[in-house]
């Protein structure tokens, strides 16, 4: 094997740039590194590191003040897990340089305003907490902090604003209290009491229609799934009862009390919350996930109770660490174990599962959580796998009341996890599910898990790993079903054409040859075929698609090649809406044992425009698929279809914006060198194609958006039809509405709203006027109302 | 393919070096010696690529399994199985191409170093599939590493080719 010699230089012909070391940026990097690393594992104590760093920064202030300000503001915003380390640092700096302290506070306020303006509410909360902890460090005077909180709480008195706006300001106030409640109460108890009572009355009167939609479990036993503000309020009340004694937060400033209490404090400028505008988008409400409590870990250290503020602080911290280090899984593990003694496995698991099961969606990609748990298992192979198994068992026990979307995620996580541990699991422990109706959540869960496990391995492996008694739940062998395969089928219409096709395709026939073979297929629908043969002919579709898919059954690649090679035939046969639907039906008939194959074929057919998204939606709700309607793969297909539609709209939108920008730049260039205004004609010619392009793209955007809207309308309409049928049947028959099918179906409807909420918000008016009207059964309407409540 | 969006470095502060760290998605030291073009062209392609090389697969791992696992980080455009040049059978590697770079990055962050078919698989950036690159480059037709391997690996044809020849 020869090794080509490459010159180290970049493309030939480019002058070799001389690298000049620029000192200022090196120093800035050094400063950033020093500041970011303080508080990490070190040979010296945190106090001496902070003191040393304060000295270094103080010395650098004359030359690098603005950089230091910027870095400190950024760590306040982006490293909330080290909040008290940095507030202490700022406190020390303020003690040495009063002006700097003042400038820092001003910069923070500016940053807070900016964050609120661009709806970065998550980071704004960190800034508010940081400011409040600066009270503990004698940088900010307590009364001025109370005044800011008074302005926050008064947002609840605003009229005609969304509840989610008020929610955020109350949350920002309450969630700072673990840090600064004690100090504020000591200095301004009357004002604080007033704030707390205003908070309480707001919490009592706010509506909570959204809660059922966001709960992981519909039952409140063994752990209530509380609305996040209610939970936080209980924690704050308990904190107040404990005289604001908070025991978990690390408070380095206590060691420097003698220095800090000598410092002069600053007053926060009066802070007016930016007004609500049409475009303001606030964070969605949440439901707190509770899976463990102190009774679950009898041997470990006592886990803080669910209404203790320590619980809030620990979990906030772990969530922040995930957010900071989500890209670096090893770093996350290190940071998490630094911040939380590893013996406390349960808070980790609770936080990870809380995020994994979060509704509407997890903050990060699902597969990340699987990998984080694997990393934790590697770190603690002696203890964590057992705890994880216990957690899985707990989740299994509560499947009956678990939200369907969360069950999906549980299935994906558990099967992927098992595939990393040789699929070792004590399935017999779950034999109770074998005696239940297969549609019930527990057996359904096991079936879906085994199917996913099979996808990650192979059929025989699954047969081998489960006890014989579980065979009823084992997945089908994923083989193709070819109806023209057997000699015994020769009486089927189209059998001979199928044989013909098979030979032709094996002999590398062209699309035209295929067309001519298919011409001979009679149309069972019409007595007089109109000669052209291009009308909807289900038999043609059947014979062609069955034969082709059967010949290409060997692998995904074979099937994709087949779709590509005979694209023309597909497009022609599936030209009409009925044609598209029938193609999908035949695909299902051939591959119903191999849902994964169905999914990838549908994906390919959408991308190559053999079928469209609406056809897939109609197919999913068709009676042929009723038997598989509650299976996981169906919903994976539907959501993937919706996502493709959404991405398509975004893509064209982006193209349009880019072309508009190009035109604007062109105008600018022309205007700037307008000495040659004789060239008006040529510049019009330049504009022409771009303007035409923009017009075409605008049409494309409109048509794509209309297709998208139509897709959602079709889906919602079909849901309403299906659910109404069931409700009417139950009512007239006097049977209970809440069958496993019904629970699954209504939660699937919720899932559509939740997973695509941003897009659906655009079509609310149409949905309200056309579909979700007052005449609708209240069971179905409730889902729509819950959804509206999410941003109300 | 679609480029990954920049991180959310908004607000006057920007972001921090320590948080920009993305070592799992960074380029490795490996450079395909058969690449036609300059080093810098190669690196430019690697930094923009949506295609991953996947190694240490079992010879029995199927396209379907790969699709299932790698589909967890995003929509897959194509899977190309690596083949023995002589036998034209799977020889333990493949290419996975995504539509969006971000999905490939997530595969590097969360699927690289985990198991498929009980084996720890390894992913790395690839400059882009070209016809011919699906074949092993070892003398016997498989991958080079299987030429010189001394240990017994049931999922990769047993002993290495050199050992087998002895």
What would your notes on this structure say?
- Chain A: Residues 682-691 have a biased composition (Basic and acidic residues).
- The complex is a heterodimer of chains A (792) and B (166).
- Chain A is mainly α and 792 residues long.
- Chain A has helices at residues 23-37, 46-78, 83-96, 98-117, 121-136, 142-153, 163-174, 177-187, 189-205, 211-214, 228-241, 257-260, 309-325, 329-339, 345-356, 366-379, 384-397, 404-419, 441-456, 459-465, 495-506, 511-518, 538-551, 556-565, 567-573, 577-591, 595-607, 613-620, 632-672, 680-733, 740-755, 757-761, 764-771, 778-789.
- The longest helix of chain A is centred in the last third of the chain and has 54 residues, at 680-733.
- Chain A starts with 22 loop residues before the first helix and ends with a helix.
- Chain B is globular and about 60 Å long.
- The relative contact order of chain B is 0.19.
- Classes of the chains: A mainly alpha (792), B alpha+beta (166).
- Chains A and B meet through helix 1, helix 2, helix 4, helix 16 and helix 18 of A and helix 1, helix 2, helix 3, strand 2 and helix 4 of B.
């Amino acid at each position: 094997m020869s090794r080509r010699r490459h010159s180290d230089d970049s493309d030939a012909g480019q002058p070799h740039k001389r690298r000049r070391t620029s000192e200022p940026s090196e120093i800035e990097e050094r400063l950033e590194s020093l500041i970011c690393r303080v508080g990490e594992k070190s040979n010296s104590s945190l106090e001496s590191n902070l003191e040393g760093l304060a000295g270094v920064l103080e010395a650098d202030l004359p030359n690098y003040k603005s950089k230091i300000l910027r870095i400190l503001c950024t760590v306040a915003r982006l490293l909330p897990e080290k909040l008290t380390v940095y507030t202490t640092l700022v406190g020390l700096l303020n003690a040495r340089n009063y002006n700097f302290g003042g400038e820092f506070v001003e910069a923070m306020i500016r940053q807070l305003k900016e964050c609120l303006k661009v709806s970065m509410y998550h980071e704004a909360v960190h800034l508010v907490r940081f400011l409040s902890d600066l009270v503990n460090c004698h940088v900010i005077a307590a009364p001025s902090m109370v005044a800011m909180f008074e302005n926050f709480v008064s947002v609840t008195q605003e009229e005609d604003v969304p509840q989610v706006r008020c929610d955020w300001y109350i949350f920002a106030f309450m969630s700072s209290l673990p840090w600064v409640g004690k100090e504020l109460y000591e200095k301004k108890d009357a004002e604080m009491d007033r704030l707390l009572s205003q908070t309480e009355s707001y919490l009592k009167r706010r509506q909570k229609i959204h809660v059922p939609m966001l709960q992981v479990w519909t039952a409140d036993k063994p752990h209530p799934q509380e609305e996040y503000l209610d939970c936080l309020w209980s924690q704050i009340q308990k904190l107040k009862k404990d005289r604001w004694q908070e025991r978990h937060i690390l408070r380095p400033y206590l060691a420097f009390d003698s220095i800090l209490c000598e410092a002069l404090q600053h007053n926060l400028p009066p802070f007016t919350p930016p007004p609500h505008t049409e475009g303001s988008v606030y964070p969605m409400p949440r439901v707190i996930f509770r899976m463990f409590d102190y009774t679950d870990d009898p041997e470990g250290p006592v886990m803080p109770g669910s209404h203790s503020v320590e619980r809030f602080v620990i979990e906030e911290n772990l969530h922040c660490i995930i957010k900071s280090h989500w890209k670096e899984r090893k770093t996350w593990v290190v940071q998490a174990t630094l911040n939380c003694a590893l013996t406390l496995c349960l808070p980790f698991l609770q936080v990870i599962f809380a995020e994994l099961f979060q509704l509407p969606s997890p903050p990060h990609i699902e597969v990340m959580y699987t990998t984080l748990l694997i990393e934790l298992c590697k770190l603690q192979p002696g203890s964590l796998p057992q705890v994880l198994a216990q957690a899985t068992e707990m989740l299994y026990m509560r499947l009956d009341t678990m939200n369907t979307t969360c069950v999906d995620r549980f299935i994906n996580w558990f099967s992927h996890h098992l595939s990393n541990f040789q699929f070792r699991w004590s399935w017999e422990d779950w034999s109770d599910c074998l005696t239940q109706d297969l549609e019930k959540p527990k057996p359904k869960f096991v079936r879906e898990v085994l199917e996913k496990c099979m996808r990650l391995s192979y059929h025989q492996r699954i047969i081998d790993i489960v006890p014989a008694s579980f065979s009823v739940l084992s997945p089908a062998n994923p083989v193709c079903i070819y109806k023209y395969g057997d000699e015994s089928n020769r009486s089927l219409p189209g059998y001979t054409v199928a044989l013909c096709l098979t030979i032709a395709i094996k002999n590398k026939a062209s699309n035209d040859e295929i067309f001519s073979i298919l011409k001979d297929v009679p149309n069972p629908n019409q007595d007089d075929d109109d000669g052209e043969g291009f009308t909807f002919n289900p038999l043609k579709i059947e014979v062609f698609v069955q034969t082709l898919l059967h010949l290409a059954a060997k692998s995904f690649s074979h099937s994709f090649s087949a779709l590509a090679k005979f694209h023309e035939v597909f497009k022609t046969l599936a030209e009409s809406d009925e044609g598209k639907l029938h193609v999908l039906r035949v695909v299902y008939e051939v591959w119903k044992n191999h849902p994964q194959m169905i999914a990838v074929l549908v994906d390919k057919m959408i991308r190559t425009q053999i079928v469209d998204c609406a056809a897939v939606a109609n197919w999913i709700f068709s009676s042929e698929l009723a038997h598989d309607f509650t299976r996981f793969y169906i919903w994976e297909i539907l959501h993937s279809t919706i996502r493709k539609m959404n991405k398509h709209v975004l893509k064209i939108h982006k193209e349009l914006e880019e072309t508009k920008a190009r035109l604007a730049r062109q105008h600018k260039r022309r205007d700037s060198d307008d000495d040659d205004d004789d060239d008006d004609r040529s510049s019009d010619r330049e504009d022409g194609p771009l303007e035409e392009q923009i017009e075409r793209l605008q049409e494309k955007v409109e048509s794509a958006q209309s297709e998208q809207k139509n897709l959602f309308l079709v889906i919602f309409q079909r849901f309403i039809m299906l659910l109404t049928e069931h409700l009417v049947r139950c009512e007239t028959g006097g049977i209970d509405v809440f069958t496993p099918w019904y629970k699954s179906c209504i939660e699937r409807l919720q899932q559509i709203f939740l997973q695509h909420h941003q897009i659906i918000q655009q079509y609310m008016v149409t949905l309200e006027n056309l579909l979700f009207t007052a005449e609708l059964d209240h069971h179905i309407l409730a889902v729509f109302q819950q959804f509206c409540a999410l941003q109300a | 393919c679609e480029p990954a969006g920049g991180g959310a470095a908004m607000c006057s502060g920007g972001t921090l070096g320590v948080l920009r760290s993305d070592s799992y998605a960074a380029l490795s030291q490996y450079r395909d010696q058969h690449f036609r073009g300059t080093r810098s062209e190669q690196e430019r392609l690697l930094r923009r690529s949506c295609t991953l090389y996947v190694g240490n697969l079992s010879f029995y791992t199927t396209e379907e399994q790969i699709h299932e696992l790698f589909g967890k980080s995003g929509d897959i455009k194509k899977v190309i199985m690596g083949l023995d040049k002589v036998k034209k059978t799977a020889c333990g590697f493949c290419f996975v191409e995504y539509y969006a770079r971000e999905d490939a990055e997530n595969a590097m962050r969360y699927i690289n170093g985990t198991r498929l078919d009980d084996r720890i698989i390894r992913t790395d950036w690839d400059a882009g599939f070209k016809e011919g690159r699906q074949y092993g480059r070892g003398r016997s037709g498989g991958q080079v590493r299987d030429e010189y391997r001394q240990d017994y690996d049931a999922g990769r044809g047993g002993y290495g080719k050199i050992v087998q020849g002895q």
